[in-house]
Hints:
InterPro entries: TPR-like_helical_dom_sf, VIT, vWFA_dom_sf. The protein is α+β, with helices and mostly antiparallel strands. The protein is elongated and about 110 Å long.
Amino acid sequence: MKALLFATTSLLLLAASGTAQTPAPGSFAASRAPGLWINREVNQYQPMELQAAAVDIKVRGHLATTTVELTFYNPNSRVMEGEFVFPLDEGQTVSGYALEVEGKMRQAVIVEKQRGRAIFEEIVRRGIDPGLAELTRGNVFRTRVYPIFAEKTKRVSVTFEQELKADGDTFRYALPMFIPGKLKTYRTHVEVVRAPGVPFTRGNACEPLEFKRQRNNQSQVAEFTKVGVEMWRPLEFHVPKRDDRTQIFLVEDKAKPSQQYFHARVEPPIPLDAPPPVFTPKRVAIFYDASGSAARRLRARELEMLDAWLKRLGTVKVDLVIFRNEAEKPIAYDIKDGETAAVREAMESAALDGGTSLGAVDIRVVPEADAVVLMSDGFSTFSADEPVVTRPDGSAPPLFAIHAAKQADAANLQRLARKTGGQVLNLMRLEVDAAVASMRIPPVRLLQWQVISGKVDEVAIPRQELEDGALVIAGKVQGRSVVELSLGRTSDAAVKHRLTLEPEEALDPASGAFVRRAWAQCRLAELSVDAKRHESGITALGKEHRIVTPGTSLIVLERIEDYARHRLEPVEPDLRAKYLAFLKSHPYYGRERDMTVSTGYVVHQWQEFKTWHEKRHPWLESVIKGAAEHEAALYEALAAGSAQGLPGPMLKAEDAVAAAALAHRAGVLAEQWQEASKEDDSRAAWLQDAAKVLRAVRALRQQRMNLAGPGGVSAAGGGFGFGGGGGFGRGVGIGGSNGFAGSLGDMNGVFTGTMTVNGSLAMDSSMPVEAPASRAATGARDKNVEAEGLEVKPWEPDTPYLTRLRKSDEPVQEYLSLRNEYATSPAFFTDCAGYFFTEKKDATLALRVLSNLAELDLENATLLRTLAFHLKQHGRHDLAALVYEEVLRIRGEEPQSRRDLALCLAQLQKPDFSRAVRLLWEVVTRPWDQRFYGIQLTALHELNDLVQHIPKEQMPDLKALGVDETLLTPVPVALRVVLSWDTDNVDVNFWVIDPAGEVCFVGVTRTNTGGCMSARMSRGYGPEVFTIRRPLPGKYTVLVACQGNYQQKASLPPTVQLEFQSGFNEVGSVKRELITRRLEKMYDAMEVGTFSVKVEDLAAE
């Protein structure tokens, strides 16, 4: 596994002109400040160093394009990997990304997000390292930086575009730059094109810039290069506005020369003849987001603004609703003479904890309110429910969305505000006084627009309200055209303003490409207000204009063959020429994909699976004697060794005598089977005796293993296992800390006669493959044998915070205190949630604690899967389904995303059978990457079980869903164990040990008694599945261990979930029990639990 190292550099690269935000200490925001990150778990290496920085800025009127190039140096003696994270401000979009490849900067290609990730994963697994950059929720741009070779440098650059904020008679550009430590070089180049005056800087707090005219007096340029300096002052300067306060850019449409794109910023004169109306609500509903992510907001600034507004109102009724994953009951306040202390204290003292459900915002709980204030960043991390912003009668009070968050879902907040005629007040961009004034006096807004002459199409207006006194409008125009804008606070006081578009002033496509992208930015902002509805349009627009959107990514590949294989045309002309030449000589290259293909192949697998489970396999009558004799032999050898003082487990002679007596009894029973099996009564009595003997053999084995202790195998045969004749079985050794001795490295023991070299018991190859022709060996489930239930192995995470919780008289307050210390630890929240669930029986608090996982890192599939595991564990399939919906959205290229969601939908209180069937059928029939080999078979077995248990009146139209009903042939199994885990590129395996000691795992996939293990999923997620149609009576023990981590970065311990099922694919309900565990140690086998199978009429012992 390659190592990962993130630089400790706290590089603040955020082109924002608002107030800087300081994250709360210990918060996730503080631990994930912008830059190249270090993983604190990997502290044995030196942090990477930022060696050089180059900033290139180009300003045209109110539009700016910025490219930041950073050079990182790896001082370590091995290859390192980093993740470059670049938070974007509201209104910024990424239009370029490049990585250093073979000493040159290579521009990225735009691609659909899911396709980009699939290409990335496929190439990485071939040992070649592409670069992938994505936009995640919160407008955060992130990319992997790899490889950074030992004692070498690596360059990465990102280009973003934005509209500049007005500052009086100027536009203000600000780029905060703060990097601890010295840079070898720091270069800056700023070009302002066709400014009406000379740009300038103010004060000594920013980097001084001296502008000079260049390029035929068309541009003002400032540049400098510094050596051995620290970066701490921002790049900030002001550009004078035009006198007419109107800025229009046009550019010729390359695809349609008769058409031009235009982008305009207009500051229309608004007469102030009549005093504007003042909004003075009498009752205000405040919905205050106190989720865990609230710690990342500047809450003091938010409360300052709210306090100032309420004071201006003077006397007002306030209903405060604090919400997180759920809403608390409203608290009513009567504010008189602007006394707001009680309301403010309630918000300040609210515990910041849990996920966010905007569905908890419901105006119906306070229908009398005539104004609604929503204080939130707009992210709904723990619910898909929509806020209810209308009263029962259909009316809606205006909603004011207020936030001071560096990362916010601006489009979502804008959508809610527009729906009610309200506003979004971003306090990172607005001063408090301006925000209060905006709430009191309705803003001037665009009331309507019309084309007076000419032809104008595809108009995009990102904001209806004027911001800084200006309106932005963009579109496409043919010929000289005039657009009339009607603006005002009300239709009674509208002001007309005309905008004239002159095609003769259009820029050529090369120099005016920024105009086309600016139009696309406006169109994207408009569509993003209803992103779900316009998802495909947003993605298409991003691809066309090379802008990163939630549905697109940027990818850099190393080899021309990879560009050709995936039909991605490079940006650079020389690379594009090589790409086209390669395709010309290899026209079919890449058409064959390394996928598991065709339904026919699945049919073949399914037939083999059916044949195995329908086959007669040796059962109790065939294994009891060998298992007992083997254990007796081991006891005799160990007792003899103890008598001679040899190292190993200490056994007494009487122990060996007892084991020998048990072996004798087993031999007698084996001889009696032929006669006993002829009659029902004698057969039932025989089964009772045999089951008791098998339990006794297991007890001897367990005693021996416990004496051996963890960590080693005794010379006398401390391992255990049951190999198979006919080429199926191999000896197994298992090691761990749960009383099982052995080594996970010894998974492939070699047979020596009927015994493996590590002392494990193997079936004699001379044993018959089929048992005698009687009801005991028909291959059907025996009516006398049934699954009894699951016995969970106690598991107690050894963590200091759980110790403190248990000792505390106030565990809730103790948890909140600990939360500050462990705010970025997923294990902390899962363990504490388990504590409140099981020990304190407080399901409501436990759910809130668990929901924090949704807040830790947006669009982190591993954390989301962990969250879903625990939600299912506690019976909240409704919430788990919502989490799996998000996983499917961000990891749609992985079949597990569909399977997990399908199985969850089928277990809802109101199951969605139709979608569950469709999703499982997609897993069965779609081509998947080779690393997911075998998942189609698992999904087909689950599809059969699902269809068999759907009520007739709810059965979907299988033909309409495309399901091949010839594959709907149930394969019933008495016992099924399913292993899944949360982390990609991690190899987790499990072992099922039957009552006779035979082990089934990925190295021994078939057992003598009919056990079957599915294909190994060594590259992430699972599922791996054990099935047996006719289990032995007694206990089946399940162990699990992490055996490999192929991630190219350090990762948290994987969380696994095992589901024990009985009666699978049979008529009647399937019994299911879940166990969720965290695997703390590599290669350490953890016993998860035992599943008991009993003889139905067995006498009580």
